[in-house]
UniProtKB/TrEMBL annotation:
Its main location: membrane. Signal peptide: none annotated. The chain crosses the membrane at residues 18-39, 51-69, 99-124, 136-158, 164-183. One of its GO terms (cellular component) is ATP-binding cassette (ABC) transporter complex. It holds the Pfam family ABC2_membrane. This is Transport permease protein. It comes from Saccharothrix ecbatanensis. InterPro entries: ABC-2_transporter, ABC2_TM, ABC2_TM_bact-type, ABC_2_transport.
Length: 241
């Protein structure tokens, strides 16, 4: 298992575009936004916080969405289309281990991206680290697993790698919208914010734990439920060939 994860990690690093967008882009976006003086000024819309403070949870969403909904479905569908999964089934190594390795690589890459984001946020803009570290860690883990489960579900149902990329893009755009990436969440109507609070990867729980409160257990429960349901359906309907 460790050998497969190591190999998948090396393959991930050989995709410069994915490394840049999934690992480096959130930090780059923070640096660009932070260079605008108005976004470093306390604003009543954010509870007298700065925009860069309030936007941190949405930057975490960017990382999770790229990994779970751009990288994973396309990679897995491509492996199936090229017969790699079928070849694995003829060896003592079950193809399911390859799927587990994909999720493990997502978690590792996501952790690196988020740690880098927090380090730059603290050192460059003096943004506080998450005030509820345990809640933030649990939310990040469940958020990454839930989006990975959805990504596997897309890969399971999509007939080709190209269609997997197309389907995943639709889900990706919805996640980014409700996660407050395209528009800050304070600009969205209340009912959209409420919907986004319960959708993976749990932007409301991320923001709560970052700003100091423990995340709502219901939000975490929904993430766990999505992980289990989407993962189970993906496993039962997945086609190895």
């Amino acid at each position: 298992m460790l050998k497969i994860i190591s190999t998948e990690w090396k393959l991930f690093l050989r995709e410069p575009s994915m490394v840049v967008f999934a690992v480096l882009f959130p930090t780059i976006l923070l640096l660009v936004l932070g260079a605008i003086p108005a976004l470093r000024t306390p604003d009543p819309n954010f509870g007298n916080l700065r925009f860069v403070d309030a936007f941190m949870s949405s930057l975490v969403v960017v990382t999770m969405a790229f990994l779970g909904l751009n990288k994973l479905p396309t990679s897995v569908a491509t492996y199936r289309e090229k017969g790699i999964l079928r070849r694995f089934s003829t060896t003592p190594v079950h193809p399911a281990r390859l799927l587990v390795a994909q999720v493990a690589v997502n978690v590792i890459a996501g952790a690196i991206s988020i740690v880098l984001l927090m380090a730059v946020a603290r050192l460059v803009f003096d943004i506080d680290l998450p005030h509820h570290p345990l809640g933030f860690f649990v939310t990040c883990l469940l958020g990454m697993l839930s989006l990975s489960a959805i990504g596997l579900l897309v890969a399971a149902w999509a007939p080709t790698a190209r269609s997997a990329g197309g389907w995943a893009t639709v889900v990706f755009m919805l996640v980014m919208f409700f996660g407050g990436v395209y528009l800050p969440r304070f600009l969205l109507p209340d009912f959209l914010n409420t919907i986004g609070a319960y959708l993976p990867p749990g932007v409301e729980a991320l923001q709560e734990s970052w700003l100091g409160a423990a995340p709502d257990p219901v939000h975490l429960g929904v993430l766990a439920l999505v992980t289990v349901v989407a993962g189970t359906v993906a496993a039962k309907s997945f086609r190895w060939e």
